[in-house]
């Protein structure tokens, strides 16, 4: 028996910082970048005396990072004890395993299913974790080989490529001693996607949920309840692993897909936070019986619009540090910060409203919508009004321009907040790049996602305009990534993705 589940990375296009506090909303898009967790039994059959065992074995492999860890899992408390590891163990994976096993035990009550669960645990757990290349930065390797910063070069990399660590000589030391290696990432929420994929795969494998028929949690169906359980456990494990209760939009996007998100009340995880995740059976029983009050309303980009991400390569950004600075500014200047947040909230709502209007117009007037968007994709924004020849087309152009204006308003107030808080939410180098991008033909939106900083930039383009933007970014030293929006959330896969990639490659060779 083998179960493979995947969960997507995210891009927060509106709601940065505000999403930390209820009832402010964020617009978050799930992406084509996905983490995969492959769960199978460690041994094929049960030893004769296995029912007397108090512990079982768990092996976790991350081939891309050349990491492997083995554990003993307590069958009573669902806690892990590390027995050996190549490289350091991953707290997100450890908490995902512990919380998932405890949740399966807490939610499976009838004898037949409990016996099946016990048997699966006694056979041990083998967990393999794989992340799409999009989560990791290959910029340094590309530059070192003298290759162009282009999507084509990224596309030529083998799927699930090994990750090169950013190990450099410390402080110019002549000893050759290396710094602690760190993985360079692209800011797509890798820890949330990874945690969610492991939780989903384990809960399905152990029989606590059935993810074979995807559904929306708002439907009240069995699949909705199953997704809600995956969300509650993934959110809990992720918060405990990172040592704080964040907004959770990254985990929510990994579970439910693209959405308008309002965070859950932090008090929901008070019991888990108070114990640091210990006393797992009690903590999980409390978590699964609480009413989670987050909001995740369906949202995705209108048709013929493409999300494009770029990696500027101007240094990394510490999101927790920036968030801390903004919070200190809020306390020191409550009147000004409240005014800025109010303006940001209005601009965020305006952008969401216009995108929803455009989506409705695409359904009500499909031909006019497609004609306008394709025409605008070949023009700078100043000429978009010239393409409208009837009232429906005029309404579409008005909404396109209103969405653009709302995004510029968001950028303005984000820059003001950054200056006031003393952090580079939209650094000057990003401002120049984004202004130039917004003036290109067929560009609707451009900005810094999430908390901002130097990690990434995004653009939303009309029609086929993304190719020209990618080319311009490459020329400006920005690496265009392969990531696009994919509104799906967590998914059950039919096979190990490495097997699928090999099959695809073989088929391609046979065709050619």
UniProtKB/TrEMBL annotation:
Molecular-function GO term, any one: phosphomevalonate kinase activity
Superkingdom in the source lineage: Eukaryota
Residue span, GHMP kinase N-terminal domain: 184-257
Known EC number: 2.7.4.2
Disordered, as annotated region: 315-338
Family: Belongs to the GHMP kinase family. Mevalonate kinase subfamily.
Alphabetically ordered keywords of this record: ATP-binding, Kinase, Lipid biosynthesis, Lipid metabolism, Nucleotide-binding, Steroid biosynthesis, Steroid metabolism, Transferase
SUPFAM superfamilies according to UniProt: Ribosomal protein S5 domain 2-like (SSF54211)
Pathway where this protein functions: Isoprenoid biosynthesis; isopentenyl diphosphate biosynthesis via mevalonate pathway; isopentenyl diphosphate from (R)-mevalonate: step 2/3
GO biological process, one term: steroid biosynthetic process
Pfam family name, one: GHMP_kinases_N
Name this polypeptide is given: phosphomevalonate kinase
């Amino acid at each position: 028996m083998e179960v493979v589940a995947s969960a997507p990375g995210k891009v927060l296009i509106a709601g940065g910082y505000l999403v930390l506090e209820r009832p402010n909303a964020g617009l978050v898009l799930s992406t084509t970048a996905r983490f995969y967790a492959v769960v199978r039994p460690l041994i094929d059959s049960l030893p004769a005396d296995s029912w007397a065992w108090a512990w079982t074995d768990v092996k976790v492999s991350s081939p891309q990072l050349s990491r492997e860890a083995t554990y003993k899992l307590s069958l009573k408390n669902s806690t892990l004890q590390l027995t050996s590891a190549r490289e350091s163990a991953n707290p997100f994976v450890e908490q995902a395993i512990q919380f998932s096993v405890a949740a399966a035990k807490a939610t499976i009550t009838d004898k037949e299913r409990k016996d099946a669960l016990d048997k699966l645990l006694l056979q041990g757990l083998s967990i393999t974790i794989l992340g799409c290349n999009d989560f990791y930065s290959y910029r340094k390797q590309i530059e070192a080989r003298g290759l162009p910063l282009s999507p084509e070069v990224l596309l030529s990399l083998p799927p699930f490529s090994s990750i090169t660590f950013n190990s450099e000589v410390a402080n110019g030391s002549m000893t050759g001693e290396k710094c602690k290696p760190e993985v360079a990432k692209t800011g797509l929420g890798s820890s949330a996607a990874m945690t969610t994929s492991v939780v989903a795969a384990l809960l399905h494998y152990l029989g606590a949920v059935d993810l074979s028929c995807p559904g929306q949690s708002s439907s009240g169906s069995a699949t909705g309840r199953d997704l809600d359980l995956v969300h509650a456990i993934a959110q809990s494990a992720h918060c405990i692993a990172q040592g704080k209760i964040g907004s959770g939009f990254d985990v929510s996007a990994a579970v439910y897909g693209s959405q308008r998100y309002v965070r859950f009340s932090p008090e929901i995880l008070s019991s888990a936070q108070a114990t640091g995740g210990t006393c797992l059976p009690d903590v999980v029983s409390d978590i699964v019986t609480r009413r989670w009050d987050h909001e995740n309303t369906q949202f995705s980009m209108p048709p013929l619009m493409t999300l494009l991400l770029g990696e500027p390569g101007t240094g990394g950004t510490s999101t927790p540090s920036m968030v801390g600075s903004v919070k200190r500014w809020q306390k020191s200047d409550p009147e000004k910060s409240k005014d800025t947040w109010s303006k940001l909230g209005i601009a965020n709502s305006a952008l969401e409203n216009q995108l929803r209007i455009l989506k409705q117009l695409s359904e009500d007037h499909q031909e006019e919508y497609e004609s306008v968007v394709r025409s605008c994709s070949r023009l700078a924004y100043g000429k978009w009004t010239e393409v409208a020849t009837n009232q429906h087309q005029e309404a579409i152009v008005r909404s396109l321009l209103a969405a653009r204006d709302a995004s510029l308003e968001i950028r303005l107030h984000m820059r003001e907040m950054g200056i006031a808080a003393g952090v580079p939410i939209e650094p000057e180098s990003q401002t120049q790049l984004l202004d130039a991008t917004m003036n290109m033909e067929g560009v609707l939106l451009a900005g810094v996602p999430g908390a901002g900083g130097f990690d990434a930039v995004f653009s939303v383009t009309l029609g086929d305009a993304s190719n020209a933007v990618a080319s311009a970014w490459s020329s400006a030293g920005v690496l265009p990534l392969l990531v696009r929006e994919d509104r799906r959330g967590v998914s059950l896969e039919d096979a190990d993705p490495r097997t699928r990639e090999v099959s695809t490659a073989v088929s391609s060779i046979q065709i050619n």
